Structures are given as C-alpha cells and as structure tokens.
Amino acid sequence: MSQINLEKAIGHQEADFPVAWLKRDLLLYAVGIGAKATDQTLVNDKDWAPFPTYPVVLQFKGEDQDINDFRKRVGGSTAPGLPKFDPNRGVHGTQSIEILKPIPEVSGPGWKLKKRIVGVSENKSGIVVEAETLLVDAHGTVYAKLYGSSFNLGAKATGTKFAKRIAGPPPAKDIPKDRAPDHVVRDRTSPEQAAVYRLSGDYNALHIDPKIGQATGFGGVILHGLSTFGFAARAVLSAVGGGRPDSLRYFAVRFSSPVKPGDALETSIWEIGPGPIGTVEVAFVMKNLDSGKVCLSHGVAFVKKVEKSKL
Ligand SMILES: *[C@@H]1O[C@H](CO)[C@@H](O)[C@H](O)[C@H]1NC(C)=O
Question: How far is CA 218 from CA 22, 52, 97, 134, in A?
C-alpha cells in the first residue's frame, strides 16, 4: 500500500475505460432526464439528435448493455496517495461537460473515457477529488471534456487543510441580483423518474431501494443528481437554444440538495453576456419546489442562441 499523500494523486491518469452506446440508449436517456412525448426532437428517432449531455452517463454505463454492479463501477481511483474512501459516503459535488463535437447515434467500437485526477482538497469535513474525463473515439478524436468532483464525507489524509488543482472548468459567474431571470422553466419529475434514469447505467441502490435512502437520512429514494442535471439542460436548451440539441456547447452545475422522484423543479435562467465562439453565457439556478431548497447552484452554460420564430 502506498503512503497517503494527496499531492501524489494529482495528475494521475486512470486506465482507459471502454464505452459504447446504441441509438436506443440515447432515447432512453432522454426520457430519464424528463423528455415528454411532445419533445419530438428528443424522443422520436425521426428528425432528431442525441441529447448533448449524454456522455455524462458513460462513466457508469461503460460498454454494458445489461445492468452492472454499481459498487464495482465506482470501485475508486487507482491513484497513489489517496486514502481508501467509503463508497457509501461519497457524494457528487460538481459536474460539467464541454461538447466539442456532436456524438454519433451509435458509437461503434473503440470509444473510451480517458480520466485523470486534476485536483484534490481536504478540509475538516472530508476530501474532494476532481477529475477531468475526455470522451474519445477509436481515432483519438475528443468529443467531450468533463470535469466532476466527488466529496468523500468523513475521509481523512492528514487532517490539515490542503488544496491543489492543475486544471478545471471555467468558474461560475454570480447571478445578477438587480434583475429578474430572463427565463423561468417549470417542470416536474415523475414518481418513476429514478427507476427510468437508472437504466442509463447508474444502478446505485440508493436510487431504487427506499430502505437505503431511509437509512442514509434522505427519507426514501432520491433521484440521480445527473438526472436533475439533464432536466436543467433541457430547460436551458428550450429557453435559450430554441430546443436545438446542437446549440449547447458547455453546461455545468454544483449539486446542492437532493431531489426526490415526483418533485417539481424550477430553473431560473439569466443571459449574462457573450460566451466563447459565438455563444451566449448563461447563469442559472434550479430550485426544488417541493423541498423549497436550491438543488442545483452555480449553473453555467454556453449556448448558441436560437431566436424563437416570430411566425
Ligand atoms: C469542505 O469542503 C466542502 C466541499 O468544497 C464544503 O462543502 C464544506 O463546507 C467544507 N467544510 C469545511 C469545514 O470547510
């Protein structure tokens, strides 16, 4: 066993993780993030496009068609220097995705995720590990770049404050305090939302077995954070991107409180100025109307704006 030294983990490249998907997986994902029967460009495979945030599920799905063993999937990093983490006390802190190229409807062979650790920090409550993940095809072309962090509650290396980071997503800008949002999108998750979303590859029992959520203090099943992430992406796409899947270039959130299947969600969206390469930068926050709490904060998106047709 290597010695615990958080510094040593930074820059560590994990083994390549093979991934694959079919058109059916993309349609199933769309329903998992709340697409309705009326969202024809998402659920009808005629005149449609894959929803752009799909790559976030691949870290769980891998190339499996059938269900997988969640505990093996999140078996932790092989990075040197990290202490052993308790998988039951890891929570998803942040997630971002930069879409570099639209993904094909069927992956075909040879796709993989290339993941490296880009940041580690420790404080009194635990250890945060941040990773950068690239989705690449068989020729090495990069389609998406993701940053995600997990907060390992109660984990300890030295017990003293530590933070180091060699790469990361652009920081979120503050929500304008002096004006109402440009768009407000209301939506509701269904009681079956987690049962459907898990079929995209995240089979963590916390999202299907009410007993686990009760034991963990959530009072029952909670929805996958990445399903809520997808609800917010749909909201931003419909409000700013004219509902066009190819309009979304970057999307990021911080997970701040749980959502239960059936909860109603409200996304407040501000267009705050020009973003990179002809996009509009968007700041957003999502509130869970049932708990009354913000469930996604620090929202950032870069969207190619599509003006609504005036006809
Ligand atoms: C430790 O870091 C986490 C994640 O950034 C944060 O949520 C938490 O409030 C911090 N705790 C303390 C005691 O600073």
Answer: 34, 30, 28, 33
Delimit the domains of the chain by residue range: 6-303
d(CA 288, CA 160): 35
> Residue 131 has which token pair?
């990773």
224: CA distance to ligand 1 center in Å? 22
* Residue with CA nearest ligand 1 atom 14: 123
Instruction: Classify 198 as helix, strand or coil.
Output: helix
Q: Give residue 286 CA to ligand 1 midpoint distance, Å.
A: 21
Q: How far apart are CA 60 and CA 75, in angstroms?
A: 11
Q: What is the mean pLDDT of residues 120-146?
A: 97
Q: What is the pLDDT of residues 296-309, one digit of tens each?
A: 999 999 999 877 65
Distance CA 21, CA 70 (A): 18
User: What's the 232 CA to ligand 1 centre distance in angstroms?
Assistant: 24
Q: How far apart are CA 260 and CA 252, in angstroms?
A: 21
Q: CA dihedral defined by 307, 42, 224, 271, rounded to 10 degrees?
A: 0
User: Which structure tokens are listed for 35?
Assistant: 């697409």
Pocket test for ligand 1, best of 92, 123, 153, 254 (most atoms within 8 A of CB): 123
Q: What is the domain class of 6-303 according to CATH?
A: alpha beta
Give the confidence band of 310 by pLDDT, cuts at 50, 70, 90. Answer: low
Ligand 1 centroid distance, CA of 136 (Å) = 33
Mean pLDDT of 217-221: 89
Tokens 């490296």 belong to 116
Could you read off the pLDDT of 39-50 as tens digits, one per residue?
A: 999 999 998 999
